[in-house]
Specification:
Blueprint (H helix, E strand, L loop, with lengths): L1 E2 L4 E2 L3 E5 L19 H15 L3 E7 L2 H11 L2 E7 L7 E7 L3 E12 L15 E10 L5 E5 L1
Parallel strand pairs: 3-4
Antiparallel strand pairs: 1-2, 4-6, 5-6, 7-8, 8-9
Length: about 150
């Protein structure tokens, strides 16, 4: 809830990491076919629709251009997407409901690598990204800073 002296404005936010919806190690009881993109992706969109979120933050989003971009736009979201470097096929998304919020600016795209203290495969510690988005509530003269 964003508040001011004059009135309160409600914003509903949801955040997901795709990997937890894909890998059987996280859900050993799930059938493997339910975690395949063709089955999983429509369920993600249906769940997002049911939440009626004003702001969505998604990580590890695969098939953005081929699927998620148009589906999120159909739900009324303005979208800011950044993909990982080094040949990675996934990225991160911030979506703002167009009837409630406007992008006021892209504060920063963050690219970083984690320190690898245990000599684990370096692929797992490179190409991380983040977003800082500046947006304005349409109903009030109020701004939000969103980190993803």
């Amino acid at each position: 809830v964003v508040s001011s002296r004059r009135r309160h404005t409600r914003c509903r936010q949801v955040s997901w990491a795709r990997r937890c919806l894909q890998e059987t190690g996280y859900f050993p009881y799930a059938k493997k076919e339910n975690l395949e993109f063709s089955v999983r992706a429509p369920k993600v969109i249906a769940e997002l629709k049911s939440t009626m979120a004003d702001i969505i933050c998604m990580q590890e989003v695969d098939n953005f251009e081929q699927y998620y971009k148009s589906e999120l736009q159909k739900l009324g979201y303005a979208i800011c997407y950044n993909n990982k470097e080094n040949g990675r096929y996934d990225g991160i998304v911030v979506g703002l409901k167009k009837d409630k919020l406007d992008f006021a600016g892209y504060a920063e795209e963050i690219k970083y690598n984690l320190v690898n203290p245990k000599n684990v495969d370096a692929r797992f510690y490179q190409g991380y990204i983040g977003q800082i988005i500046f947006c304005k509530l349409k109903e009030a003269d109020q701004y939000l800073l969103i980190g993803n």
